[in-house]
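Input/output pair, single chain:
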Amino acid sequence: MVTLPIYKDTKFLGATTVRLEEATEAIDPNFILVIAEDGSNSSPTVDELKWRYHNIVHLQNDRRLGRGKALREAWEKVAGEMYVYVDVDLATDLEKFNAYRNLIELGKRFDLVTGSRYIHGSMTNRPWLRRESSIAYNALVRLLFHTGVHDHQCGFKSFSRKLVEQLDVSAKSDSWFWDTEVIVLARRMGFTIKEIPIAWTEKKGSRTPLKRLLRDMWLHGTGLLVLLRRVYFSNLGRNLS
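Output:
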C-alpha cells in the first residue's frame, strides 16, 4: 500500500499521483494508492484520477486530524503487507539514488525504511536555517533516545505490517511529531530500521518564515518531553525496553 497524506495540497496531487502510479507499477504492480486527506477536500481532483486509476482509495476527513492520526486511521481501514508513505509534494526525488525502489525493496527486509537527508551520499536543498535547525533537532533525538537515525522527520518511509500493528497500539502523536515517535518506539521495541540516502528539495518555499519555525520548535519540543516521560518514566517504557 502507498499512502499520500494531504492537507490543502491539491496543487501537487494530480502530478504526484500519476508519478507514483507509474513508479510503483514498475516495481510491484499489485498495490493500492490511498489518499488520506486531512481537513481539506480534493474530491474533484481525486474523482478525475479514479477514472484513470482503479486502485485509488480516497479517505477524506473534514476535521483536521494531524498527519499521525490521519495515517493511523487510514491504515486501520485499508490493510496491506507493507505500508509506504511519501509527502505529496514529492520533495524526495524518486529516481535519484534509486530511492523509491530501495524504499520498497528494502521494506521487504526491514521493518522500517526511512529516507535520510543527512547521511553520507544524500543531497539536500532547503533553506539554511531550516536545515541547520533540523540537523540540531535530529542530533538531540539521537542523544536522548539512542536511535542511531540521522533524519527522523523525513516524509519518505515504509513500514512492515507487524510494525504498523504494534504502532497502532503504542504510537500516540497526532501531529508531524509522529515521524519521530515511530522511529523511537520501533528502535525501543527491537524492530529493524534502515536509513537510505535521498535527494531532497524544498518544494513549499525557498525561505522559512520565523513564525513557522517557532511553531515547529514548540510542537517538536513538547513532543520530545512527552515521549521522554513515556519511554523512561512509565510502564510503557519498561515494556519497550
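The two ends are 30 Å apart (CA to CA). Residues 114 and 157 are 4 Å apart (CA to CA).
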